[in-house]
Amino acid sequence: MSEPVPALVTLHVWRVAPSSVPGAVLRMARDRARVRRTPGLRFAKLLGTGDGRTFTARDADPLRWGLLATWTSTEAARGFDRTSPVTAAWGRLAEESWRVDLRPVSSHGAWSGRTPFGSPVPVRFEGPVAALTRARLRVGAARTFWRSVPPVSTDLRARPGLLTAFGIGEAPLGLQGTFSLWDSGASLREFARGPEHAAAVARTAPERWYAEELFARFAVTGSAGTLDGRDPLA
Question: Which terminal CB of the chain, N or C, has fewer other CB atoms within 10 Å?
Fold first, then answer.
């Protein structure tokens, strides 16, 4: 049974200094229980990040960490930002932080056996949009999957309209994902129809790469802070 479409989805991204990496790793371990107790929270994943060029451990960026969350209301999300010990701790630790607010416009698949973004009726949204992909690789499928990634990643980063993109994951290997931000739905659709991406999608079923997969698109409704020195949406 599909879960309700959340009122709001947020992605927090924090960048830390090299000296603060041990503290960030500790936060990843300690914050899971604290996040789960947040009022109004439906689903949350603490995330490592990477550049997404190969989807292997070589991509990992130990200086940047994230939290994806879905909410029953905008008020619950804002309460988390204002009063949660999790955001307070990251505020003390991080050199830079960025939050983007998202509204699901389409979602297919599952994450940890759940449908965190519900089943929104697909709509076209021509303002800034975001795409999130996440997959759990099948044992034995990683090698052929990793060989397919670089051409798609290179094509992605050359696309007009891309505002930012990075890899996300709950673990260095096996649990793979990307988050990309675009200036319009048209730009994202052009990338999805491109030959490199289309070829990789066509191989997914016959190669049986994934034990679980999810693909979601979002309308971007707001942002705060900076990512690598600027707000990509500014």
Answer: N
One-letter amino acid of 152: V
What's the CA gap between 198 and 200, in Å, rounded?
A: 5
> What CATH number did the domain enclosing 94 receive?
3.30.70.100
Type of residue numbered 25: V
Lowest mean pLDDT among 137-141, 179-183, 222-226: 137-141
Task: Provide the residue range defining the domain that includes 48.
Answer: 8-223
Is residue 2 included in any domain, yes or no? no
- Give the model confidence (pLDDT) of 141-175 as tens digits: 666 666 666 566 676 777 888 999 998 988 655 55
| pLDDT single digits (tens) 59-93 | 788 999 999 999 999 999 999 999 999 999 999 99
In a domain, 232, yes or no: no
Q: Which of 144, 186, 166, 177 is nearest to 232 (CA)?
A: 166
